[in-house]
Amino acid sequence: RDIPILSDQSEAAARMALAAAEQGKFAAFHDAMFAAGPPDPATIEAAARRAGLDLARAREATGSERIGQEVSRSVDHARQLGFEGTPSWVIGTELISGAVGYEQLAQAIEKLRR
């Protein structure tokens, strides 16, 4: 789930990601957005183009009530779980917030396996 908490443009990027998902291109948009840099109108549009989205359809979707409700649900869900950063991970019953790196995630998984 995208949780748009980093900047005002995070919500615009999350909305476009959901529009991309509707077109079956979430992964392509996700990868293109991370390659494009911090979200702003130009990088979001560039990522959408690179992902091969139908831009007219995507722009319409980003302004829709269904996309707005899905973004709100994601934010509410994150708050309920106690997420304080992105990315956030749930491994077993352990909550890990922030870009902690491979080693910490691997240790948490190994601990759960034991």
In words, what does this structure look like?
With 114 residues, the chain is mainly alpha-helical. The chain is 64% helix and 7% strand. The protein contains 6 helices and 2 strands; from the N terminus they run H-H-H-H-H-E-E-H. The chain has helices spanning 8-22, 26-36, 41-50, 55-62, 65-81, 102-113, and strands at 88-91, 94-97. Strands 1-2 form a two-stranded antiparallel sheet. It is globular and about 50 Å long. It starts with 7 loop residues before the first helix and ends with a helix. The mean pLDDT is 92.
In short:
The protein has helices at residues 8-22, 26-36, 41-50, 55-62, 65-81, 102-113, and strands at residues 88-91, 94-97. It is mainly α.
Count all strands and give the number: 2
Mind summarizing the main beta sheet?
A: 2 strands, antiparallel
Give the strand line-up of the largest sheet.
Answer: 1-2
> Portion of residues in helices?
55-70%
Indicate the topology.
Blueprint: H1 8-22, H2 26-36, H3 41-50, H4 55-62, H5 65-81, E1 88-91, E2 94-97, H6 102-113
Antiparallel strand pairs: 1-2
Helix pairs in contact: 1-2, 1-4, 1-5, 2-3
